[in-house]
Amino acid sequence: MTPGQGAAPVVRSAAQPVARLVELEHRYGDTLAADRVSLDVPAGCMVGFIGPDGVGKSTWLGLIAGARKLQGGRLEVLGGDMASARHRSAVCPRIAYMPQGLGKNLYPTLSVFENIDFFGRLFGQSRAERAHRIADLLASTDLTDFADRPANKLSGGMKQKLGLCCALIHDPDLLILDEPTTGVDPLSRRQFWELIKRIRSRRKDMSVLVATAYMEEAEQYDWLVAVDAGQVLATGTPAQLHERTGTRTLEEAFLALLPPERRGEHAPLHIPPLTAGEVVIEAHDLQMRFGDFIAVDDVNLQVRRGEIFGFLGSNGCGKSTTMKMLTGLLPPSRGEARLLGEVLDARNIDTRRRVGYMSQAFSLYGELSVRRNLQLHARLFNLSHDEGDARIAELAQRFDLVPVMEALPDALPLGIRQRLQLAVAVLHRPDVLILDEPTSGVDPVARDHFWELIIDLSRKDGVTIFITTHFMNEAQRCDRISLMHAGKILASDTPEAMVAARGSGTLEDVFVDYLAEASGVTLGIVDEPAQDSGSTIPDADPALLSADAATSSSGSRVAHFSFARLLSFSMREATELRRDPFRLTLALLGTVMLMLVMGYGISTDVEDLNYAVLDLDRSTVSDSYTLNISGSRYFLEQAPLESHADIDHRMRAGELAMALEIPPGFGRDLARGARPEIGVWLDGAMPMRAEVARSYVLGVHAQTLSEAITASTGARPVPAADIAVRYRYNPDMRSLIAMVPAVIPMLLVFIPSMLTALGVVREKELGSILNVYTTPVTKLEFLLGKQLPYIGLSMLNFVLMFVIAITLFGVPFKGSLLAFFVGALIYVTATTGLGLLMSTLTDSQVAAMAGTSIGTLLPAIQFSGMLDPVSSLEGVGAFIGQIYPTTHFLTISRGTFSKALDFGDLSAAFIPLLIAIPVLTLASVLLLKKQAR
Amino acid sequence: MSSNKGLLHNTWHLGMKEFHSLLGDWTMLFLIVFMFTISVYADARAKPESLHRASIAVADEDRSQLSARIIDALRPPQFITPQHVELADIDKSMDAGLHTFVLNIPPNFQRDVLAGRSPAVQLNVDATRQSQAQTGTGYIQNIVNDEIRAFMQRYRAAPAQPVNLVTRAMFNPNLNQSWFAAVTAIINNITMLGILLTGAALIREREHGTIEHLLVMPVTPLEIMLSKVWSMGVVVLLASTFSLQFVVKGALGVVVPGSILLFAMATLLYLFAAASIGIYMGTLARNMPQFGLMTILVLLPLQILSGALTPRESMPEVVRWLMSLAPTTHFVSLGQGVLFRGAGIEVVWPEFLMVALIGAAFFGLALQRLRSTIGNM
To answer: Would residue B277 count as lying in a domain?
Structure first.
């Protein structure tokens, strides 16, 4: 291990500390993550925070980075108070923060280059500067060849290097790394620390704060803070800590520092010899292809009962894929995997009962409490209530989960979550345990506990264990190990035999040797710190770099609003959208499809109303009367009615919209002038249809009478007055002309708002929101930046719909095109803003989608005047209708389409639309938080 | 036999898990409550009558007793008290969309009527507001005719109509729109939540990697799917029944002649269909943003073209045929039958059957897709 080895410890005690914690307090519910901590962190050196999981290390680092909101006490970073927003935004460009978790702050669909470029833009670097810096960073991290690879296709080690590049793009004065090498293989880990060392040799004043679970790494730091239970146990250089505790390794030193009651009974592990039984896991020529890419190639292995089989290899070499094939999760492309002699079949439920699997990424329910997660799994594995509860209590004890049983895993540190996952994996006492990096991110003490358990399971219960790890001391404990690289097994033997065969000192050296050989990496500098100045990176133009440094420090006064930062978010969002062609297609083709369906489908013409006649007269007069109705295009005659009960029945069944009853003696009464009465029954279940039917039948009735009079008297009766109806704007009352201009505003609220609805909440749910917390971007820039690409896409939609309207539907456009276009632009800005507002309001993507659906469908369809004018509404509906953007754009759309209007005529509709934009944006800005709690 | 027991057992526990997840999402809970209470109420109250507060203006050039009488007859709640406009301003006020109707009574109208010259009043209708234009025109024509007839009767006996036409509306005598709106709103909410909750729950499991975990356990895709269907189904069923009982019957005071129990059973069946559609979409979409868009693309036609907004009779044949494949169409027709017309199972069983068949088809499709794609999730 080499971090910091080159630079002599440069702890300048007199210098101003980079961070000063005074009585700092932070709690999550009942858990204290910072218990009145007072600490001065020295500047210009490498400071390590060591301690078990969940004692508060990550919280402290998050607070120092400004990503978390201060709860109590005082915190000064880089000479100012972090409680002050002004100071935070001033020092933000000088701090870089890499959160815990592989690639947590990266954008998975963006390429390596685009990821770094995005951060460069956020810090306002020019194109030339970015190009230079990125080239430099890529070269020094060996990522140059992968510049175009999307981040989600990178191995864990590469992701961390990329994360580091993103953090270093702006030459920070303070670099904060939260468990940067957790889950990274030894070779990549060495490369990572080498990189840090080189960077530090170039920027000597940079302070680096690291939280780590690797005590060997911490051994090399300049200054250490031992943390436990939200408090500082001790500080000092590693040498000082050794001296104080009289121990040789840091691991021992830390244990000695712990209060006795926290220490537990920690004894060196004892591994009883293995008495191996029959073959349990067997793989023959196992191969897995993904398209052209061979992830796993010809893997052969045998594992016996009770054996602990270690599976080692660099990140992304195919270990996880092999394990998935061994669990039956993934059917192999070729070859076969056998479990206890039977070929693995993913559909065989019984094999699943015999296998316990723990995947690399956390895959339990973050929204369910620890207890509920355990209970769910107990039930699914068919444990009875009592049995399950007993087992859960036992596991909670054994895995030290008792204090967190009611907590949500999402709120727990990585190490504890891993313990929970393991508890779940062994819950049903499987024969075989397949563990994919179970101890990644788990602290040393807990790791030893964990291994005690594994050894116990193996030796006492005869459980076969198949495990991957990046910790060499763990590999050492395995009965046999295999080394994998690029889908192939390089070597397979007992750890001792491997070391002996290779002749190098430790297993780690063997590992690094093998991998370096296989991948052609030279690691010469590792053993020769003197080579520092002449290291492999072309140390670029020192003048240029110092000039950069000068500009970035003098330019550290952050602009209040930067268009460049805004655009960097827009570009990123647009790239992500481009990488998701399915979504793009849905947005564009979906609009076209909906336009067609709705344009043709919504029709308020009521035609073909089903009706039937109950003719109790059965005379020629009643016949001729009913003939007039059946001749109307509005009505469709059904089989005649038999009785009143029949009316009731058929109306109830919804078969008839209208029933006519002609009374007995109708013809006779008419002839006598006795004014017989015809009864009409309308189906009131659909009031609108009933109204229309009523007006139709009254019209037909009046016409029939006047025709009868004409026939008998030979002259048309003269009405007292004539009502001349002029249907304006749409003289033929064509549904299309009325509906198409209304469909455009509808679709321009649903789709644009849904496009932006997940914008913020998705980043919250997946973690990349941290970049907003820790970079100089303002809330307004972030929101507008996200909105911009969707405004563009929505305008494209608009143009598409407009073209369909005038060509395919043939709806004449009479007014000002410019007014319509400008109106649409303002409108989609408001509707995309509405989606963003929903996104900032909600905590889950599901809620954001539901909220957006409710917030758009109801007001737009019912309250905006699509069918009924807003002026006809009452109550809340009328109020919403008056302020809702769709109402006003609908006026603009109908006005320009059918009424030949221009800006001047429509100013009353433009003004509320224009007001909606700042109101929505302001609401989003106010609701968005710039720090986590 | 034992696998059947396992199926029920796993489905039950996985479903309970969904409940607990939902209980943790306060915003979502709030939205569900909001949708089935305030939203339904506001929607129903917005427009109590099918012709309600139609805005009308009158350009009265006659200023006679008769014209005053006509104007006076156009009154709330059907109409907003008519505004007077000048002849010259008719175009402007209609362009601005201020009035749907402008009635123009010409000079000497009353004199000409009494003289039997049959003068014409002009009714300008904003035909871009088609629905109101249609209903309102008929109303205005009737009102004008009635007023003229009544006015004339004071001067000479007007000829009586030889046949009287008496119209009555069954099930909803006053053609009260708010009943209709409230039930439509509930149906729309059921559709939206049924699809959204289940589909999103599936994608969430995928995005958080939990589906992989389920797959190494003795759980089958069928159980995963059934658990989501039943749990979300129960949530929506409870919410909708509550809404019907307390918002529609209670707060809105709607007299529901039909059996709420029958409707609840239909809802359960329909939710099975909607949830299956949601799962199917969840297997098609690769991430939540895609699913969000798909939801809108599916929800819109379901809400607008299922007969809940405008009558199906007036839709083109193709659309009508396509929509007959959607369970919503049958559910809407079933809901109207049960809730408004008090229809029993003997009347609405064909719709029940259709919803069940379509639901089963979607469930089968979704299950098949889930089985074939689940490995790559």
So the answer is: yes
B311·A722 Cβ contact <8 A: no
Region B124-137: what's the mean pLDDT?
A: 82
Contact A871 B80 (CB under 8 A): yes
Question: Has domain A609-713 been given CATH number 1.10.150.80?
Answer: no
Percent of chain A with pLDDT over 90: 20
Each domain of chain A, given as residue ranges in start order, spans 19-263, 280-519, 563-598+733-927, 609-713
Over the stretch B53-97, which tens digit does the pLDDT of each residue have? 888 999 888 888 888 888 888 888 888 888 888 888 888 888 877
Q: What number of other Cβ atoms are within 10 A of residue A361's Cβ? A: 16
A-proximal residues of B, 336-355, CB under 8 Å = 336-337, 340-343, 347-348
Whole-structure pTM value:
0.84
- Does residue A795 surpass a pLDDT of 90? yes
Residues B192 and B328 in one domain: yes
Domain boundary among B153, B184, B206: B153
In a domain, B133, yes or no: yes
Q: Which domain holds residue B120?
A: 56-153
Which of these, A48, A446, A45, A445, lies nearest to A232 by C-alpha position?
Answer: A48
Residue A528 has pLDDT above 60, yes or no: no
On whether residue B256 sits in a domain, the answer given is yes
pLDDT at residue A546, as a whole number:
39
Instruction: State which of B153, B168, B202 marks the end of a domain.
Output: B153
Closest CA to B159 of A868, A126, A451, A713: A713
Nearest alpha carbon to residue A885 among A895, A893, A873, A896: A893
A722-735 pLDDT, tens digit each: 888 888 887 777 77
Question: How many Å is the Cα radius of gyration of chain A?
Answer: 37
Query: How many percent of chain B have pLDDT more than 90?
Result: 21
Same fold? A280-519, A609-713? no
The alpha carbon of residue A585 is apart from the nearest alpha carbon of chain B, in Å, by 10
What pLDDT is stored for residue A11 in this prediction? Answer: 46
How far is Cα B290 from Cα B281, in angstroms, rounded to an integer? 10
Cβ of B213 under 8 Å from any chain A Cβ? yes
Fold that domain A280-519 belongs to in CATH: Rossmann fold (3.40.50)
Residues 6+ apart with CB under 8 A from A596: A804, A808
Examine residue B241 and state whether it is found in any structural domain, yes or no.
Answer: yes
Q: Look at chain B and report how many structural domains it folds into.
A: 2
Query: Which among A142, A195, A182 has a CA at the least distance from the CA of A2?
Result: A195
The secondary element (H helix, E strand) that includes residue A394 is helix A385-398
Q: What sign results for the dihedral spanned by CA atoms B123, B124, B126, B127?
A: positive
pLDDT surpasses 70 at A547: no
Q: Specify whether B275 is located in the same domain as B339.
A: yes
Please state the φ and ψ torsions of residue B365, each to the nearest 5 degrees.
-60, -50
Per residue in A73-130, pLDDT (tens digit) is 999 999 889 998 889 888 888 899 998 877 788 898 899 999 999 998 888 888 899 9
| The token pair that represents A587 in the structure block | 């947005």
Assigned token pair, A498: 């491997």
Give contacts of B13 with chain A, Cβ < 8 Å.
376, 379-380
Q: Do strands A72-77 and A80-81 pair parallel, antiparallel, or not at all (unpaired)?
A: antiparallel
Q: How far is CA A655 from the centre of its chain?
A: 49
Q: Does domain A19-263 have CATH number 3.40.50.300?
A: yes
**Interchain CB contact of B305 with A (< 8 Å):** yes
Please state, in angstroms and rounded to a whole number, the distance separating the CA atoms of residues A802 and A806.
6
